[in-house]
UniProtKB/TrEMBL annotation:
One Pfam family per UniProt: Abhydrolase_1
Organism: Novosphingobium album
Known catalytic reactions: L-homoserine + acetyl-CoA = O-acetyl-L-homoserine + CoA
Residue runs in coiled coils: none
Record pathway: Amino-acid biosynthesis; L-methionine biosynthesis via de novo pathway; O-acetyl-L-homoserine from L-homoserine: step 1/1
Protein name: Homoserine O-acetyltransferase
Location of the active site: 150 (nucleophile), 316, 349
Keyword set, alphabetical order: Acyltransferase, Amino-acid biosynthesis, Cytoplasm, Methionine biosynthesis, Transferase
Record's subunit section: Homodimer.
Amino acid sequence: MASATIIEPSAVLTLPQPLVLDGGQQLEEVRIAYEAYGTLSPAKDNAILVTHALTGDQYLASPHPITGKPGWWSRMVGPGKPIDTDKFHVICANVIGSCMGSTGPASLAPDGAPYAMRFPVITIRDMVRGHVALLDALGIESLHAVVGGSMGGMQALSLAANFPERARAVMVIASTARHSAQNIAFHEVGRQAIMADPAWRDGDYYEHGKGPEKGLSVARMAAHITYLSEAGLTDKFGRRLQDRAEKTFGFDADFQVESYLRYQGLSFTGRFDANSYLYITRAMDYFDLAEEHGGLLAHAFARTKARFCLVSFDTDWLYPTAESRNVVHALNAAGLPVSFVELSAPFGHDSFLLDVPALDRVVEGFLG
């Protein structure tokens, strides 16, 4: 493959045009933070867009600057890996509304103060508009594929439906075309925990040195339970007790699973913004691809010619296999080529992020 400039990690691009949102408002001078790996071909036809989940970011396959941990999909993306950067130019952008460099509630508004809760309501489709604007700025008209898991899968479906000419292949892993009432309920518990924290200050906490860390920690704990499976929790922790001599953040944790959840919650507050959590979870709750297209999901895919692959996991109760089958039926009704597989894994919803060799084979086979 002929050589081309490899974009350095953590690039930030300011969109040349305002970003018009579903709510009728527009954002000026939108910044999109992204990472890119591999070499873009002279024809610009080997690009893959990987879209991230709720608490993910652009650090797909390189160390996270805050936690120092490997990229969230470093096991999947890289030279010789299923998403092979020796073959493909892989892009991952932080969604608008988030907090790792793209424009969000913590960004400065035109008046010089953080947007906070003045930030406009956003949707999954708005996030995808930001991605498409980034691709336009990079001169990439058509993607070899878009790949996403969880909320990333929602973005992949939205791109296929609303920008049908932009991707030749679409891979959706552990996701859904519409948020269920149960998932909305779990998100609302998290949002209420954040807003009940006195340090939230109605969202205006940026100048006070400390945000609603306790509320955000509880929100993360509640959400993290939904990412796991009962069998996985039982195997890892069971009802095993903590060492009574140990303390967890200043108070007793009787069970090991309690200590684990508290650690997950507290560590999360160091890398994520509470207001971003409010906005992104609401965007996920609003997501209903069928409703956007006259009430029939098959209508959403009427204009695309992409081929699709959907993957679910047998222990995922957040987005169970029935959700993927619903999308597959709609794609069949639209006459589109689609493959579908339910994989067995013990990890629940988080299976798409963990060591599931069968998923590696499916990804490599579909993209190849």
